[in-house]
Amino acid sequence: MNNPKIFCLNLLLACFVGLSAFAGNGDKVTVEIDFGSLKHPKLKIETNWKEGLSALEALQFVAEVKTHPVGQYVFVDEIDGVKGVPNQSVWYYKINGEPAKKIAIDQPLENGDKITWIYKQDVCSSKEDK
């Protein structure tokens, strides 16, 4: 190339095309964390989505999370320092406004999903769990 301006423009174009290839495909999910009656502001964070991403993994990408296994299941105990207390308040989640039908580790997400984690009264633990 004899013209330095054309060379520079082509070089810049190649850089932008190369960088856009590494920038990702723009696929996202939104994770919202609602601390219920606690004096914490709600959080709303987008994170990258990929095929096979679970509701638990998306939460772990945006918050500090503690879990515990029970047999083949994994339950969320704590999010960002707020610990669930069986028979009092625990963490539940919804997908696109609908109550979850699976535990979070087994719940695959789709591009654009909104996952809302809510700290609220425990309605699932039995009194024997104390």
Please give a structural write-up:
The chain is an alpha+beta fold and 130 residues long. It has a single domain, classed as Ferric Hydroxamate Uptake Protein, Chain A, domain 1 (Beta Complex). Helix content is 21%, strand content 35%. The chain is built from two helices and eight strands. The protein has helices spanning 4-22, 55-62; strands at residues 28-34, 43-48, 65-70, 73-79, 82-83, 89-95, 98-99, 114-121. Strands 2-1-8-6-7 form a five-stranded mixed beta sheet, with helices on one face. Strand 6 and strand 7 form a beta hairpin. It is globular, with a radius of gyration of 21 Å. It starts with a helix and ends in a 9-residue tail after the last strand. Residues 7-23 have low confidence and may be disordered.
Helix tally equals 2
Strand order of the largest sheet: 2-1-8-6-7
CATH class annotation: Mainly Beta
Helix content: 10-25%
Number of strands: 8
Quote the beta fraction.
Answer: 25-35%
Q: Order of helices and strands, N to C?
A: HEEHEEEEEE
Inertia-based shape? globular
CATH architecture classification name: Beta Complex
Could you name the ranges where pLDDT drops below 50 across 5 or more consecutive residues? 7-23
Pfam family, one: DUF4430
Protein name: Transcobalamin-like C-terminal domain-containing protein
Keywords: Signal
